[in-house]
Design a protein that fits this description.
Radius of gyration: 19 Å
Number of strands: 0
Structural class: mainly alpha
Number of helices: 7
Low-confidence stretches: none
Mean pLDDT: 92
Shape: elongated
Number of domains: 1
Length: 222
Amino acid sequence: MAEYEIWKFLHICMFVFWLGTDMGVMLCSKKSTDPNLGVEARFQMLEMALKIEILPRVMWVMALPLGVHLSKSLGYIEPSVLTLSLMWVFVLMWLVINVGGAANLDKPWGQQLSKINRIVVASLGVGLIIVAASSFMGYGPYEPNSIALKVGLYGLINLTILGIEIAFFPLGMAFERLATEGSSPELESSITSGMKTTLLWVHATYIMIFIVAFIGVTKILG
């Protein structure tokens, strides 16, 4: 089997498991805000969402190396062995930070990893957008084509995911109050508002992922 076919298959699997499982995260999270459910059931839905979320987090990170290898197999880029090795070192470190933080938010070191992850995500997002923009202006490492556009959009996806995490902070605090104080109209209003804001970022992320997939299939810019 050709190298391209292997990376293409893995790329498709990445999109399927990223969006497919994240839809489960979104639906469970949204259901956890339903005041008609008991408090225990709502926390079970939230716990389920946080457990499912691990897989889309892994796929989100793996989009970077899979995209690089797919682009290499198509001849768009020619990274050196050293560049590829450094990329995989970064990816593995990012996976530990990203997934480790998300899976251990109840521990101080998990919260610290999450803070580090937000810095990594913000830096990577802005950096990739700059690389894509400079490529279209003729100063970057890519030709002004679909690859450069996908790089910029992946950078933007990192920023919208960062938006999801930031928007979820007040929602998380509202659930902490729900556990100790019980339900009240004021608290339910806060939870509903927090979820609406979070979903705006979620939907923006989904749209960006669909656009990247469309560009990858159609190669509208060559």
